[in-house]
Amino acid sequence: MIQTLRILTYHTPSLILSFAFLTLSLLTGSWLVRIPGVQASLGLNNAQLGTALLGWSIGSLTLALLSGWLLSKLTTGKAALYATLFFCTSFVLPALAFDQWSLMVALFLLGGANSFMNIAINAAATSVERHYGVTILSACHGMFSVGGVIGAALSGWIAMLGVSLPVHFGALAGVLLLAHLSLRPFVLHLPHTEAVRRSRFALPNPALLSLAFISFSVILAEGTIGDWSAIYLRNELGGSPFVGSLGYAGFCLTMALGRFSGDAVRARWGTRNTICGGTVVGALGLILLLFTQYPVGGVLCFLLCGLGFSAIVPTVFGAAARHPAVVPGVGLASVATAGVVGGMAGRLLIGNVSEWWGLPVALAVVAGLVLVAAVVGRGVKE
Asked: How far is CA 167 from CA 85, 258, 362, in A?
């Protein structure tokens, strides 16, 4: 009985956080797969869509900058709970948009909620690791990728059935909101790691510049795949709505497989080699995508991208949280902020470059940036 209680003591927080990571990606993946339908219903071109999507990045950046201060004011459990409820509630807003600007406002709120939840649950996972002496961050990110697979595939199927966006988003958000409310007593008792109370904003720490640039580049690439994979498969390669959803679903599937094995990979190859190898493989997937002419080939390229990028973000976040020059929560928020800036830059870049020179050229630029990140990764200390 005592041994069982000990197992439950450190497994229960891990399971709760895994569900939070799954929720974050399930909702995000559900939105991303419905982007082509929203673009068509609102009559937006690529540049207009890119501008509207920028609302997500601005909201993400705003909350990322404030996250260090928010984490210093709340316990780990309260931050994770409030952020999750905020995200579930905000999820229905894009379904109510009626033009480019209302969509941008909705995505501002949703992106802010997404950013705060992302940082809060990563900080909570780091606290659990430090408190119980376990390694769960990569597995939690694996559950994030599983949620992306479920959300993308489910959303593609629902879109094929012709279910309206408000009904789809409202029902999904309601179910998950009730589920997380039922877990409230457990979440509020997650172990807490004290944050620095002097810091109001989480700007990248000079000691973390290499990690910040890698976070910027890789999250830019991940965001590009999330925002534009369905559009690329449908508009550039002629795939159906369901096939369009398979690009992001496949990306998340290999991300999940890579992240579940990410701890073992890092232990064997080290932080530096994990980052460099992953960025090269991810860039290769993007480059091959430019030469494929069939939807199935595009899906396979996104699978390769997911495999390459899978372990990089948890590796970078973990390295930032363990850096001796910064407090874990603030260091993690600092690197996450750089990633949010990458997401913002990507939405500006892809929407406008694709409108002028085409989506393949925009993806080539992203691939080049990821290769630069691979070079920078050579200077990361173990």
From this structure: 19, 33, 34
